[in-house]
Fold:
Amino acid sequence: MTEPGTIPMIDLKAQHARVRAEVETAIRSVLESARFIKGEECDLFEREFAAYCGAAHACGVANGTDALTLALRAYGVGPGDEVVTVANTFIATGEAILLNGARPVFVDVDPATFTMDPEKLRKRVTKRTKVIIPVHLYGHPAAMSAILDEANRRGIPVLEDAAQAHGAEIEGKRVGSLGHAACFSFYPSKNLAACGDAGMITSNDREFVDRVRRIADHGAGRHRYENLVLGTNSRLDTIQAAILRVKLRYLDRWTDERRQRVRMYDEAFAGVPEIRRPRESASCRSVWCLYTIRAEQRDELQRHLTSRRIATAVHYPRPIHLQPAMAAAGGKAGDLPVSEQLGREVLSIPLYPELSDTDLARVTGDIRSFYGRG
Ligand SMILES: Cc1ncc(COP(=O)(O)O)c(C=O)c1O
Structure:
């Protein structure tokens, strides 16, 4: 629970207030149709979201973790295979690899964009590499062109982890249509947010998407109780699809509002050298899922902001190669110096479309005054 008077990291009640009537109508219509599983809204949202990304096909699933896990399964990833990814990410990226019995191979990130360093990728690709997963962290696209060069040269598919980057672009092309396939999460704190768990896979490869769909639906064939491959139950819920269809219509406006607030943060922190601001690479358009600074005396700054009733978060304090849950991958401290350094320095501050000018000024004022620049 957020204390009254606290500026939160994200304000889901304020978001809901903007779409309440439309969301309630959408939910009511599903309730009345009683098509709770595989309802028409699922199909429609898949088509609309694929089109939004510039991809030909999409398959809704239960959450972003399943999107990654099932996509890897559809590639046939299993024991003896390696999947190259980054450790500066949410644990789900690594879980999906280990859950398929493969070995995650972690490469370090570029300190400017916090995303996969293509130079370092080159050194970690082997004959066993089955898939490469770059993560579009905090809403900023990974360096896809260099990553794809390396992957294409070796004939390895690139699966984008776009869980934090709905609508982010490189040279006007949206994530979700850049690699062979992409995985999205609609977790409530994401830019496009369900009222619960939901996820999606996009791709131009129809056969691949059909394979994922089959796995996500108990390996089902055309006939009732015909199960052709070992699958699971990971379908997108119809009520979530209906809600997401409403919010998709607002997504670009909300992204613009985020970008406006980012400009205000950038201006306010321009004269504070103790803070390294996140930047957008040339030709990229970030959707700013998070505004994450690198800060000297990060822990003290965080404590100061907590005492001033400003919520903050560390994304992520421990790169996943050092998480006990990833022990099977054999990572150790010192393997990924940039990711490990970021874990000590990063701090995400409140950013959401409804963040008011007054609250934003409170955040910037308190950060500036912490560094004696009030
Ligand atoms: C980078 C990244 N990958 C994967 C996921 C997993 O998504 P979900 O929480 O919907 O399972 C998340 C989100 O939480 C994420 O941030």
Q: What stands out?
A: The chain has twelve helices and 13 strands.
